[in-house]
TrEMBL record:
Domain Aminotransferase-like plant mobile: 62-411
GO-annotated biological processes: meristem maintenance
Tree of life domain: Eukaryota
Listed name of the protein: Aminotransferase-like plant mobile domain-containing protein
Organism: Lactuca virosa
């Protein structure tokens, strides 16, 4: 852990090549973004009233189980902590125990959506009127649309109850509106918060054909893209099927998992129902930092690699049971422009298989819809579609002769092991400050006997830079504590210093004050070098802490070596020079050297802050 206190990884960035864009880099630097805003809109699904004929059509379209899934309270801090572990380079979570992911197997067990079939892809739209009129029989008002998206509220207000005795065409229109609302509030929820693209509507024109689409694969592609976007340090929201993500975590990780009041009615397919019952257990103080710390210290004993192993096949629909093998297919998941790689070869332990070192991930272009309406994306995504068509040929083979220790040794080099800092930034700052003081002390006490001019110049420069850093640190800490009234005094002193500098052409100032023993201490100001501060030599001197004390707060380093002169080869620009009316005891050449200071009886130089 000592190593990871300063280097959380990756040591080898050939896999996680986008680390600087990732939110974990921001967290390591102390830039907390808090819990993500989670967009899923399932709370009003129960306000729709479906007729038996509509339920039949929904079943034909492949959504009979998704329709039954209840609204589950989302744990935003848990989801946010999981996102910090998601890597868009591999489409997997990088945990301390290895890589894990939500796979097509999880989608089949948890949501009951078809995971095999035709890819969900079609034509994009930039307006809603024409497509809504054709497939819904009505056109939304201008306030209910935005580009090619329509408000969920308009769909619910207009189509939530089909009239009794309505003709088949009207029933189908109301059912299409319901399906658009269903996917827009669950598996394809967007960060807009209340809208859904109308591009899905043509896929519901024929309900039998709709049932042939791989809606589960599309839902997973959409979630992968949402996770990847949310993992960037610049993002603050996440969408997609977050119920799937949260329940996946409950099944596989013993972190944030609620205790359930077991009800046999909830232990049925699809298995998100297991988490519908009343949850018990502690829920306070579970913020992002709580879950982040838990994931940073995740142990193998806290992972359930194969949570479905005891579930009877008889509980699964035939189409789901027959296609679970696709959970091990290295293929491309497609949802219109969202094409994302499904890489179960990186998390084979989730299938009860020993994990070898996986193949390198081929980088791919994440395409966007573009701005043109009426574009069929199939022509733009031929390569991705070809990979999906070969999905049954891409199932990862089982290799029994695998030594996992080799994988773990490799994994620790390429992963980001920690997200949170084991040592707080404040503690690291104190350690750095102590190191700077040590450097300044060594430089002050170092004997220069036998050094040439270049070496002496280097020592002097190191001494100066160390004291400059210490001065800046102390100054920044003290200035943060200055009150409003004190700030006015600081402003006056700054203006006074500026006037002195303009009069003295940048020369230094010599001050004397008594210490506790009554002895006078001589102070010399060291301004910022010219090449560090452009056209502005301003020193900030803090006001006295006591009304009866006119002395100013100064940083007092260790007394310099008094036996050797360092006057040769020192760069004058690094030091203040005296004004024309300064005390005659100051060096006439304007150079403040250790030998000059050593001649002052028991005096030391100090840096004004």
């Amino acid at each position: 852990m000592d190593f990871y206190a300063t280097n959380p990884g990756p040591i080898d960035d050939s896999v996680l090549y986008d680390q600087e864009k990732h939110v974990s880099s921001a967290v390591w630097e102390g830039q907390e973004r808090g819990a993500l805003r989670c967009h899923e809109h399932t709370s009003k699904l129960d306000q729709w009233t479906l007729t038996p004929k509509q339920i039949e059509l929904v079943k034909k379209a492949g959504f009979s189980y998704l329709r039954l899934i209840p609204a589950i309270s989302l744990d935003n801090p848990l989801i946010s902590a999981l996102v910090e572990r998601w890597r868009r380079e591999t489409n997997t979570f990088h945990f301390t125990v290895g890589e894990m992911s939500v796979t097509l197997e999880d989608v089949g067990y948890l949501l009951g959506l078809p995971i095999d079939g035709d890819p969900v892809i079609g034509v994009t739209y930039t307006t809603c009127d024409a497509v809504c009129s054709k497939y819904l029989g009505r056109t939304p008002d201008s306030g209910s649309t935005s580009g090619g998206m329509v408000k969920l509220s308009w769909l619910k207000e207009t189509f939530s109850k089909c009239p009794e005795g309505a003709p088949l065409d009207e029933i189908e229109r109301h059912t299409r509106a319901y399906l658009l609302y269903l996917v827009g509030s669950t598996v394809f929820s967007t960060t807009t918060g209340n809208k859904v693209p109308v591009m899905y509507l043509p896929l519901f024109e024929n309900f039998d054909q709709a049932g042939r689409y791989a809606w589960g694969a599309a839902a997973l592609s959409f979630l992968y893209r949402a996770l990847g976007n949310a993992s960037l340090r610049s993002q603050s929201t996440i969408s997609g099927c977050l119920t799937l993500l949260q329940c996946w975590s409950y099944f596989r990780l013993n972190i944030g998992r609620p205790k359930l009041n077991h009800d046999p009615r909830h232990d049925r397919f699809p298995f998100v129902f297991r988490w519908k019952g009343k949850h018990t257990g502690p829920t306070t103080n579970r913020d992002v930092a709580f879950y982040r710390k838990a994931l940073d210290s995740l142990k193998p004993s806290e992972v359930e690699w194969c949570p479905y192993v005891n579930i009877s096949d008889a509980m699964l629909p035939e189409d789901i049971r027959n296609n679970l093998i696709l959970g091990r297919s290295n293929t491309m998941l497609i949802c219109f422009d969202k094409a994302e790689r499904h890489l179960p070869d990186r998390c084979l332990r989730q299938f009860g298989i020993r994990q070898p070192i996986p193949l390198d991930v081929q980088q791919w272009e994440r395409k966007s819809r573009g701005v043109d309406g009426g574009v069929d994306l199939s022509a733009k995504m031929e390569t991705e579609l070809s990979e999906w068509s070969d999905r049954h040929l891409r199932v990862v083979d089982v290799d029994e002769d695998v030594e996992e220790t080799e994988y773990l040794h490799w994994y620790l080099k390429i992963t980001r092991k920690l997200v949170g800092r084991p040592i707080p930034i404040s503690s690291e700052f104190q350690r750095m400050n102590a190191a700077l003081r040590d450097i300044a002390n060594v430089a002050d006490m170092l004997s220069t006997h036998g050094m040439d001019d270049q070496q002496m110049h280097a020592v002097t420069r190191i001494r100066y830079l160390a004291h400059e850093c210490l001065r800046d640190q102390i100054g920044s800490m003290m200035i943060a504590d200055v009150t409003d009234s004190e700030q006015n005094e600081v402003d006056k002193k700054i203006r006074g210093k500026e006037r002195i500098r303009r009069k003295g052409m940048g020369m230094g100032v010599k001050r004397r004050r008594k210490d506790d023993s009554g002895q006078f201490l001589t102070e010399f100001c060291l301004p910022s070098p010219i090449n560090m501060v452009e056209n502005n030599d301003v020193e900030i001197c803090l006001p006295p802490g006591d009304a009866d004390d006119d002395s100013q707060l100064c940083y007092m380093p260790t007394k310099v070596d008094q036996t050797h002169s360092l006057s040769n080869g020192i760069d004058d620009s690094s030091f203040c020079q005296e004004p024309a009316d300064a005390n005659a005891d100051m060096p006439q050449d304007g150079l403040v050297s250790s030998a000059d200071i050593a001649q002052q009886s028991e005096n030391v130089y100090s840096v004004l802050v």
